[in-house]
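Dear U.,

For the methods section draft, I wanted the exact inputs and outputs in one place so we can describe them consistently. I've listed the two proteins in the order they'll appear in the manuscript figures. Please don't edit the token lines directly; just add comments below if something needs changing.

First protein:
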Amino acid sequence: MIIKPYLLTIMTSNLQNSRTLWLDYLKSFITVLVVAHHSSLAYTTFAWFDSSAYINSTAPIVDHNRWIGMDIFENYNDIFFMFLMFFIGGLFFVKSIEKKGTTYFVRDRIKRLFIPFLFLGTFLMLLSYFPAYYVADQSATITDYVIDFFTIENWPPGPSWFIGVLFFFNLILGVVYPFIKEKLNRCSDKISFFTNRPVAVFAVLFGLTFILYVPIAYCIGAGKWVSFGPLDFQLSRLVAYFGYFLLGAVVGNSDFDRHIFSSNSRFVLQWKYWFMVSLVFYSAVTYHNRTDILGQFVDNGIMPEFVAWMIYYTLYVGSCTASCMACIGFFRTIVKHSYRLWNSLAENAYLIYLLHYFFVVWGQFFLLKYELHALWKFWIVFLFSLAASWITSICLRKISFIKRYL
């Protein structure tokens, strides 16, 4: 039997590297979700625009064509996908710092994370936010726009905030790693215990998320963002994000591909059940968001306000936890072979993440004058932004210097 060369290129068995492969595909999938997430924000029913400072708006461009389906899609993503991104970001921390040493590790993170975040991120956001400035001020004066960008809007990083925060998480853990190495190793040795105990995994991850997120969100509010120059983050989630990054480092230091994330582990095999659990939790969250049922209970004296908030956050954390587990299990289950198209997506995912916002915002801006259903506008913006950022990334990575770091 003769196998055609192009078939070998498109699909090749790669069991030895399946760990990297399925994680690469999972990371690239989340990147696509990020593009879709930002593409939807202009068309949610809760979207609003602040013309005095567009950075305070729910999105740089807000269209008058809205659809509740965008709310459901956007909110489901928002609950879990950045938590999962930080977990994945920590998975290879230990292996990387052990291989490179602390000094070279930090230097490498500066090159791969901090420099792209600070310089490329700032440049791309200057290009991306101009339509928002034009809509707000009806002005196309470049000088005024740049001044407004760094003063009134307070140097917005856009989606690259994740890269900046990830850099500082790597820096912090890199500095303290020599002092916590033994404790981290002991924690990693216990990971195999959870291989066939998915309910225990859910309980631990749920508890960790609840403890690190809920008290802060309850005290200061879930939507509060804080910025220091271009470094911007959601304050209520910062500690939880670091907890997920640290958990990723602990899991990554174990032989996770042969134990907890083994293709035969119950954790992985039961991904469908955890997806259904996430939908149950999320449906309850959505029902409350639409009806304010818990608020009605408080107003009618059925329960104290604190209890209502704890019920809501329990549902929220349950959706986040189950969604993360379902995504990991799903990709560990389905990824058996290497596919050329998905390999390309994985190779370009970092630059797609950095580039896509420019195409999203400008795409939404150009569609403002057209009377189309919000769903059609979403698909146009999403597919255009994904394709344009993907093609641009492929072209840029032909430059050896860019390919080396991005």
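Second protein (the one for the lower panel):
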Amino acid sequence: MIEEIVNEVSAKTGLSPEQAQAAVMAVMGFLQSRLPEPISGMLAGVVNGGQPAAGGAEGGIESLLEGKGMSVLGGLFGSKS
């Protein structure tokens, strides 16, 4: 998955693949440091090539994308639910 993100960033910005990878990794690192568990663990799984990080969340990023992590995300972004 990370390769797809890097390729998309490279294509949309005109950055070299190496520059795009550095940018993506910087953003991922920033997000990991700011997001609560289990979301940071899911993101670490994406960075680690789809493998859960040590102590990472069950279900991985797919669970987040399917809505299982949305209650946590809603709190981060000011949801009133």
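Candidate sentences for the figure legend, describing the second protein: The chain has one domain: 2-76. The longest helix spans residues 17-34.

Thanks,
Y.
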